[in-house]
Amino acid sequence: MGKRLMKGNEAAVHGALMGGCTHFFGYPITPASEISQAAAYYFTAAGRTFLQAESEVSVINMLYGAASAGARVMTASSGPGIALMGEGLSYLAGAKLPSVVIDMQRAGPGLGNIWPEQSDYNMVVKGGGHGNYSNITLTPASAQEMFDFTRKAFELADKYRMTVFILSDAYIGQMMEPVEISGPVLHGQRKDWAVYGDAQSRENLISSIYMSPALQRKHNEELQHTYRQVEQEVVDYELYMADDAEIVFVAYGIVARICHSAVHALREQGIKASLLRPKTVFPFPKNVVEDFAKRRIPLAVVELSSGQMADDVSLAANGNVEVFRYLTMGGETPTVAELVASVQRDMATLGSRRSS
Amino acid sequence: MIGQVQKFGKSHSFYDIYERKGEGEQSTHYCPGCGHGTIQKLIAQAIDDLKIQDRTIFLSPVGCSVFAYYYYDTGNIQCSHGRAPAVATGVKRTVKDAIVISYQGDGDLAGIGMTEIVHAANRGEPITVFFINNAIYGMTGGQMAPTTPLGRKTLTTPFGRDRDRDGMPMGMAELMQAIAAPVFIERCSVATPKELLKTRKAVHKALQNQIDGKGFSFVEILSPCPTNWGMTPVDARTWMDQQMTLLYPLGNFRDAVVQQEEQPAEHEVPLWLDDEALVELLKGASDVPVMRMEPLSETQRVKIAGFGGQGVLSAGELVATCGMSEGLAVSWLPSYGPEMRGGSANVSVTLSMDEVGSPLVDHPNVLLVMNGPSLDHFEDQVVEHALVLVNSSIVTRKVRRTDVRTIYIPATELAQEAGLVSAANVVMVTAYLLISKAIPLDTLKRCIPLVLRKKAFLEKNLSLVERTMVYLQENGMV
Ligand SMILES: Cc1ncc(C[n+]2csc(CCOP(=O)(O)OP(=O)(O)O)c2C)c(N)n1
Ligand code: SF4
Fold first, then answer.
1. Chain A residues with CB inside 8 Å of B73's CB?
2. Under the phi-then-psi rule, with left for phi > 0, alpha for psi from -120 to 50, and beta for the rest, what region is B288?
3. Could you name the CATH architecture of A4-233?
4. How far is A304 from chain B (nearest CA, A)?
5. How would residue B6 be classed by pLDDT, with cut points 50, 70 and 90?
6. pTM of the full structure
7. What single string gives the DSSP state of each residue in B62-129?
8. Mutational test site, ligand 2, from B38, B40, B64, B132, max ligand atoms within 8 Å of CB
9. pLDDT for residue B4
């Protein structure tokens, strides 16, 4: 099958339609607007539904409505918009409605700027809205993965009745790469819990209310049970040149691509660097981190944030090994040369510390 | 008066026993004399009469009617505070035959949910909205609502609602009247048996409109909250009838046959594509043919920079497409946003035999500069022995670096001679590919039609490629 050169943003919309998504609700925000624009074209041309809502608050509630009626639904936004969706995301989780949300992260806090950061990690991975809940969170690092992960997201959302996030960044969205439009078109099935406005579904209720603490507790325990199941079944990552690792980068999205180059550059300098690239950050590949840590192989988290994912890495490493943090904020990205220099410096210090 | 209400009895559309409320429950959770119970019975009756029980999806708001799903034996969705019109939009656009009812209080609809109701109305969503105006936040214990009359004491206006501080009470039916799309707007009341009958008719009409697919219907119903008004049920209804109606005059505001604003121009709505047609739409015609792979002597880290409008991004796209068509791994990353607005644009393209790691090109080994500022900006970033191509029609100065290979080419002039005003980018790409031998000429020619937006200029572009090649040969550059 041939490939097309396309942007990650466009690839996501292709993935959505191949994944059986029928309803896209959007509100413009850089750097996610291109996704809504592509959806406006492709969803409409395909006879699916695209609607520009009046706000992100409305967007997430339109998702709530369409998902309640059994549709495969999605939206795309960036930090400020995702923050506005917080309450709605929590309702989706509470009512166990499947949905797909893309966050093309930009720099914050506040209006910040439109350059890439990875500072929505906590908001997206740890919930973002109120209450105890999680979102499955996929982290693509190429245009092809924007297609593949978005397509797959609808299956995961339906299976676990959860929101699936595609946590990406401005670079992955803007970048054009060859993309293969692969696989059969998927379709959502009729759901026995949804309300279709017919006799068969008349008894169904979509709600996140459990008036008695006992019932609310049971509901919460069930949700947590699903999340534990997701941790077993959905976790995904790539290990790159990890067999002989002396140090392992941990990075996702655009930064993983930079680390990929840094691995080669470091190996040319005689340092056996490797890369652990989480493809899911909820569930987080804790076991892999734990394993490196137990083998005393140092980890270097490279992240466009104050260290939000790095905290998860540290937690999994559990003090068994050094976790270096190469953090950049504000919309800048580290260069390969900078990463090489940082690793050389830290490996040297580590070497002298371990031998003394 | 409350006795009057009882005569409607229990509708089919209500459960006999409210199991969702509690085992064996037969009474609602509403306070004695509350308007919610009365109105919900009217709605249930209408659902029965219109035979739409199976088709109905009832949206409960946040407010005292949050538990409407205890009672309605229909499809039910409980919504977040104020957002029911957005939820209704999602539902109605998914199941078009469903009868979608949004039932909302005044805090819900006129306070937190003002945006959602206004826009749903403005889109003319073919749904039915029942707006229960009890001039108070009932569920939270009696705080001021947007509809609370001036001077009224509530928990958050202990000295009375003050115009200068709190603003004027909000007339939602009047506000709806300012929007073109709704087909039906009426304000009624449940204060007296006479008004109750009118309300009953309005409820019917608003639902019939949806059955008929007419458009957005809005019924505001003045409703007592004896508990938080601090009145007996009887006094509450008297106060409503005598005082509240002065502020909120009853009556029909609009009863249009069809939606008023027709679509300005007829436009075709594309039909649902089946799987095969969908795949065809997504794959497009421009599948890039992958040809024999030419080994690449060195990974190409290309930076192309110039003014916005010089075709910098499409030059990059052309290079990337050529690479892809040769079976190489490629990436294309533009500068974007504010940087573009400043009038300069640049793009990073990588062509590689192996997987592309970082798509960012920090240190290019190929630089194509289309204007002066780009040369100033990128000259120092290129690696030793890099290939630097300069559009000498526009860039007046020379390259200062002596450790790079520099080519000056009057790209804008060559393009203009070929009758193309903005094709300097094609000249630059052609020169780069031929000089570097990264991509053969045939591949370039094959890829131009895939990237070119204006197909009418294809022939001219192809002859410009030839012309550029001749120029390079004449000047001993290839
Ligand atoms: C986001 C959010 N803010 C506040 C609340 C608390 N709250 C619950 S009901 C309500 C007011 C409801 O008043 P109204 O819509 O007039 O309905 P009534 O109870 O009078 O029928 C408020 C503020 C909430 N549930 N959610
Ligand atoms: S508080 Fe008011 S609105 Fe709520 S149930 Fe009681 S009377 Fe009705």
1. 202
2. beta
3. 3-Layer(aba) Sandwich (3.40)
4. 15
5. very low
6. 0.95
7. SSGGGGGGGTB-SEEEE--TT-HHHHHHHHHTT-TTSEEEEEEEHIIIIIITHHHHHHHHHHT-S-EE
8. B64
9. 42
Best of B66, B72, B74, B91 to disrupt the A interface (most A CBs within 10 Å) is B91
CA distance A154 to A5: 24
The answer to whether the CB of A316 falls within 8 A of the CB of A286 is yes
ipTM of the complex model: 0.96
Q: CATH 3.40.50.970 spans which residues of chain A?
A: 4-233
B90·A66 Cβ contact <8 A: yes
A5 contacts in B (CB within 8 Å)?
288, 317, 320-321, 324, 330, 332
* pLDDT the model gives residue A91: 98
**Residues forming a β-bridge with B350:** B301, B331
Mean pLDDT, chain B, rounded, equals 93
Structural domains of chain B, with CATH: 19-255 (3.40.50.970), 291-474 (3.40.920.10)
Cα(A331)–Cα(A116) distance, integer angstroms: 5
A117 has a chain B CB within 8 A of its CB: no
Here the tokens at position A157 are: 């959302």
- Report angle CA A327, A332, A338 to the nearest 5 degrees: 60
Which of the four pLDDT bands, split at 50, 70 and 90, describes residue B3? very low
Q: Are strands A237-240 and A273-278 parallel, antiparallel or unpaired?
A: antiparallel
Outline which parts of chain A fall under CATH 3.40.50.920. Answer: 237-355
CB distance from A40 to chain B under 8 Å?
no
d(CA B57, CA A204): 10
Residues B226-263 have pLDDT tens digits of 999 999 999 999 999 999 999 999 999 999 976 555 55
pLDDT at residue number B342:
54
Residues of chain B in contact with residue A174, where contact means CB-CB under 8 angstroms, are: 333-334, 336
Atom of ligand 1 nearest to the CA of B61: 15
Asked if A240 reaches chain B (Cβ–Cβ under 8 Å), the answer is no
Is the CB of residue A70 less than 8 Å away from at least one CB of chain B?
yes
Give the Å distance between the CA of B137 and the centre of ligand 1. Answer: 6
CATH of domain A237-355: 3.40.50.920
Compute how many other C-beta atoms are within 10 angstroms of the C-beta atom of residue A270.
8
Triad B471, B474, B476: Cα angle to 5°: 105
Please say if the pLDDT value at position A1 is more than 70: no
Cα(B100) to centroid(ligand 1), Å: 21
Which among B83, B94, B115 has the least Cβ separation from residue A69?
B94
Kindly report, residue by residue over B146-187, the tens digit of the pLDDT: 999 999 999 999 999 999 999 999 999 999 999 999 999 999
- Choosing from B2, B21, B36, B239 the residue with most ligand 2 atoms within 8 A of its CB, the one to mutate for a pocket test is B36
Nearest to A91 by CA among A219, A264, A207: A207
Q: How far is the CA of B105 from the centre of ligand 1 (A)?
A: 8
A247-250/A299-303 β-pairing: parallel
3-state secondary structure of B350: strand
CA distance B2 to B5: 5
Name the band, by pLDDT with cuts 50, 70 and 90, for residue A199: very high
